[in-house]
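Weekly puzzle thread! Below is a chain. First person to post its structure in token form gets bragging rights.
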Amino acid sequence: MERLGGRKVAVIVTDGFEEAELTEPVKSLKREGAQVDIITPTKVSEVRAWKNSDWSNAVPADKVIDDVASDDYDALLIPGGVLNTDKLRMSAATVDFVEEFFSTGKAVAAICHGAQILIEADVLEGRELTSHKSIRADIENAGGLWIDRDVVVDEGLVTSRTPSDLPAFISKMIEEFQEGIHEEQHGSVL
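Winning reply:
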């Protein structure tokens, strides 16, 4: 049985995303029946991955951030990649899109450097999460409680450190996306 049949998942990404942090979760989401849209901050036909310190494969882009609303989706996935998240957090529309998922209590999954946009959206106060260790201080300065574990779940927020954590990340992401609205997450940003 598909655990995510009928669910719509937004994936925000741009050039420089860590390849496995997008491709593996998206493959698993689709296998579980989710409809997945790759959403970019600017209109492009595709986005390029980063793998092993170099450019890699391209992935087709489905939509641009200005043409979507968080109300169109049940959950949000934020892949990592230093280049990716640095560009994403410079887009005010993308940051607003992320914040709306928290204000409505929808599940959000971010891996590695994906947490940088959560910092920019100002949604981490009092939240437990993990990330790539290089942004630990940034998370703590934003009020987050950083934990060095393969996956951390805090009321609909799923986070992991690196691609090596993908099995645990994907498992918990699917579980939280299946649960739907998380009232505790909703209450944390109002």
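Puzzle host: Confirmed. Bonus trivia for everyone else. The helical segments are 19-31, 82-88, 92-103, 115-120, 136-141, 166-179, 183-188.
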